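Case study.
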Amino acid sequence: MRLVGVADTTFARFDMAAAAIDELKKTGTGFKVVRRTVPGIKDLPVACKILLEEGMCDIVIALGMPGAQEIDRMCAHEASAGLIQVQLQTNKHIIEVFVHESEAESDKELAWLAERRAREHAVNAYDLLFRPERLERMAGTGQRQGFDDAGRLR
Amino acid sequence: MRLVGVADTTFARFDMAAAAIDELKKTGTGFKVVRRTVPGIKDLPVACKILLEEGMCDIVIALGMPGAQEIDRMCAHEASAGLIQVQLQTNKHIIEVFVHESEAESDKELAWLAERRAREHAVNAYDLLFRPERLERMAGTGQRQGFDDAGRLR
Amino acid sequence: MRLVGVADTTFARFDMAAAAIDELKKTGTGFKVVRRTVPGIKDLPVACKILLEEGMCDIVIALGMPGAQEIDRMCAHEASAGLIQVQLQTNKHIIEVFVHESEAESDKELAWLAERRAREHAVNAYDLLFRPERLERMAGTGQRQGFDDAGRLR
Amino acid sequence: MRLVGVADTTFARFDMAAAAIDELKKTGTGFKVVRRTVPGIKDLPVACKILLEEGMCDIVIALGMPGAQEIDRMCAHEASAGLIQVQLQTNKHIIEVFVHESEAESDKELAWLAERRAREHAVNAYDLLFRPERLERMAGTGQRQGFDDAGRLR
Amino acid sequence: MRLVGVADTTFARFDMAAAAIDELKKTGTGFKVVRRTVPGIKDLPVACKILLEEGMCDIVIALGMPGAQEIDRMCAHEASAGLIQVQLQTNKHIIEVFVHESEAESDKELAWLAERRAREHAVNAYDLLFRPERLERMAGTGQRQGFDDAGRLR
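After joint prediction, the assembly is written out as follows.
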């Protein structure tokens, strides 16, 4: 039995963790989910580290929804850099699922994007853990999570 | 008995630490507060690390008030990156409470914002330590500290 | 027998890893290739670390194709910083092969650039591993990977 | 007897270290000064680390004077990030005293600012080491080093 | 006998390493030079770490010539941050000698600048290793490497 950590925030305006967990369960079996919710995205790195080290998770999905201001982009950068550090300290993957408010033109589109990206990245996390050969088959194919795939260059 | 560290600066123009400590005490019991004041926000990371490692704190609230210039934003970024590193070195949370001078239009509004954000984040620190399930119930609900909550996307 | 790691992404729109592996094999012998594909460039640092530490690779070629938006440049920066950290943690080289979508004016040129850069950097990786004296002979000669060499200053 | 490290540069256009050392001696006793001069501010982090670890210093004052170009701001950022890392590796404070050429409108004002900031931060270093309760009493009072204090918000 | 590492790139358009080595030899004795050439500046951090740890060098001179595009400035930033990390991991100095293509108005001036900066920084490296008191005497005197010294503020 593998453990999949799911870390999310109270700052986000959509329950991306619920979508990710639902998609994980639709995709396969052989794992349990451990969830940890923190206030904002800058709290995610240590939350993920605790899930990986103390919670014994094999991989973590880290979900957040940065605001549309310049300060929010800097927060997202700091959080991302932290998430990479955690991976290098644990030799385990963290799938970062950030949806920037500025990516959508309406609340409705933002909710749609948040759900779809969370679900597609949940499959990525599943693949990294259980079927890495599936990712290798998709190498260089322009996959995107949320909006349409970009596809291969022709 | 748990220990809550409170790190703040002489640079800030409002005693956010006093507000945070007052709110912590209103919120619950079972903890003692250890305070450490440093000159500026770039001195906060090591102050927090000392509180967590030598002061045996279980969590730290780090309060600061960056100025409105571009150089101040860079200082805040450096301090934030340092605070994340400390969390990854200790596996403990630091709740960063930064109020940028540029967030308010008057001194009065800035003081109001500093107090309210300090108080709301003090509750977040309390929740992380004593009732993490409360944060999970608020996952994805658009919580903000200071100004009004953004709320769930509809 | 040396081991050369090749890490790439499903996000990229060209199979740069295939080009790099082909070029490695044309360049020399005495090595085996170990490949690992991840979703995006921010997943590359830990993938490279796993290849170097758990996969026992002697060097890794990390290939990615950042998008043309500002957020993509920030992702590339975070990934690059992570790749440097991995090298410092392992004392082994990672040859970063990033092709930014904004570097080319058409899909066709982008594909051409991705292939050529991947192939030229594959030779760099081979040189670092098997014939470092070849790099020293080219010191200060304005080598570029992909577009034309800049050449020595005159 | 405590040891106070003073690290400075040949790049700076004012002997800020001399001012800091003079002010330290006016402020109190019970310490010796160890000085180390390096070419530029990017050489300061390791100089401070050597002072703290090999020189057994209890605290370091790091003085520099970044130029007015964009590249200088980036150098200052890299140096600052390095200084924070050193503090986290040693659990000791480094008081960063940077005066940007762009902060003053004439050479005369720049020299005045460099001296005053060095002196005021020397007192901060003394306080951190010998009388931290003095800093706590000034918490949230808008202290500045060099130009006038901003004061408390009203 | 001390060991001075010299790390440079095939990307640079001038053999700065040759100039630095020549100047070192003109400046004094008591050391041997160990050279390592890599493709680009982002490969310098690990090359320097290998020179310091495996090559037993006492100091390293790292030479590079970043291009004039925004992406080149980011590469230089990543390389610089990495070089600082290496110094903090080894407690030894690395003298970074970067010449940005944008610093000169012609190829001829760029070559002149690259040679002069390499030579002047070679003396800095020599001073750090053999006569640190010489640097202390120049503290706060506005030294520059390449273009004219800025001099003391008056």
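Observations recorded in class. The two ends of chain C are 42 Å apart (CA to CA). The beta strands of chain C are 2-9, 31-38, 59-64, 94-98. We will return to this complex in the next lecture.
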